[in-house]
Predict the 3D structure of the following.
Amino acid sequence: MPTQFYSTNDRSNVQPLKEAVLRSLPADRGLYMPEEITPLPASFWESWRDLSLGELGFQVTRHLLGDAIPDEDLRPLVEEAINFPAPLYQLTDKLSVLELFHGPTLAFKDFGARFMARLMGYLTKDDGRELTVLVATSGDTGGAVASAFHNVPGTKVVILYPKGGVSDLQEKQLTTLGGNITALEVSGTFDDCQRLVKAAFSDRELSERLNLTSANSINISRLIPQSFYYFEAARQLPEGIKPTFIVPSGNFGNLTAGLLAQRLGLPIEKFVAATNTNDVVPRYLLGGTYEPRPSVATISNAMDVGAPSNFARMVDLFARPANPAAEKLTEADALDEMSAHLQGLAYTDTATRHAIREVWENHRYALCPHTAVAYLAAKDIETPGHKIILSTAHPAKFLPTMEEELGPGTVPIPERLACLTDIPKVAESMEPDEAVFLTWLG
Ligand SMILES: *Cc1c(COP(=O)(O)O)cnc(C)c1O
């Protein structure tokens, strides 16, 4: 049976995979979740430690999606999407770093974006019309999406970014691919970019005619592949050792994917949510109220989120009983479960900078500012077994901060980033004006 997806705001609003992936958001503004999440079968657990990351990903996806996609199509789709490793780097005998930055844009967002791009291409291949993907970016997402969709047949991508609002290297990641990727440099802010994207989606006629879709981070197809690397990490530990995962968090997609892996049966000791001073969730978990608020800027800027968009998914997962036949918990009980099982810790930029220096001095290992936040939490918690911190980006993506702490030249720039400096930027200029943008689009 193909799995259906419901809205977290209305469990009776159920859609098939194609609808959930191409629409991204249900009309009632909830988030899509798979109707059934059951533990993987015994046959999986017999061999999972010997599987490649691609095969692991295929088996997890196959189990989650049911027979929505035939195996002979799904296996190569997952293998092409996840064609880079996720190694564990052991820092001490109690603590390892899961390096999620070996993809083309050097951040974990490659997992979600590459899977989504191939899935969207696959789901629309017989529609006989091109899919236009619109995305507004303040930095990393645009690069991951551009790289992921580059050369995917039947797709065209338009990326809007604020002029002067992204780093030079981030801009190069958006503007040097060409082909089916078009970069629009908007003379305005990130909010202006988002406003233009929204205007395009609100124009029903245009949206239908151009077959518009969004590549935003709450798309369910970005979450699924992020669960793979929790299995991959646990597989690399000696048998019988249950990991505690410490996840540097902003919109909480990464942590939600970990909870998903746990519901699929992966033995996990516990999860810790680590944030910068945008600490809405840690505050809540410490017994406060859940109060989204405007974000503040930090050196771990990909986690500067004041209203985490995956919170509703976390509540939904905690509401699912261990026994699938049992009733779902009420929202109040699910929130209690979450507070009981999830620890949250928040750190300042000063502490984060200190952690970057400390790990370099003790281990000659460079942590990006986001990963450093997780490192601080790992030091502060007590847990049996082994601690794994998720490293969400390569430190070279945040060179100014790294060089302030460690001195120039300590963090080598990977060839994939370095080679971009010589490629000329190609972007079209755009006024932050809805009418001008809609005319340009189509
Ligand atoms: C997006 C991002 C995060 C935050 O991940 P969420 O899934 O939004 O919690 C952390 N670090 C880096 C480098 C990121 O790009």
